[in-house]
Every structure is written in C-alpha cells, then in structure tokens.
Amino acid sequence: MDFDLEQYDQMAELMGRMKGKAVVSVNDIPEMRAAFKGHHIKRVSIRYSVGASVSGREPKGELIIGNFKP
What is the average pLDDT score of the chain? Predict the structure, then answer.
C-alpha cells in the first residue's frame, strides 16, 4: 500500500504522542528524514533482491525510525 507524504507526517506525529514503542522502516529520502525529524533515526544499507535485476542490486539506503532511544 502506498502512502502519500502527508500520511507519513501523520504517522510521525502519532508516534510522538503514543505511550508505546513503535519502529518504522522507510526508504532514505529527504522527505522521510523531514517527516520523522525529532525521532531516533538510523540509516542502514540494504540490497533488494526480490524483483530486482542484477544491475539493480547495488546497496540502497533504508531508515530505521523509532519513537524511543535504543
């Protein structure tokens, strides 16, 4: 399911208000960094293999975002 950028803004807001812990994994793009600013963000490199061509298997950036300090 695709989300609009506005929905990621709402998700970040809800994560900031909730009493429980939450973790989200999203592509590392400037819009995601802006939406989740203020949360704990860790960048990791991943290689997509399902549905990717051999040339498309170069490392990509992924953000692991949490509303708590690990």
Answer: 87
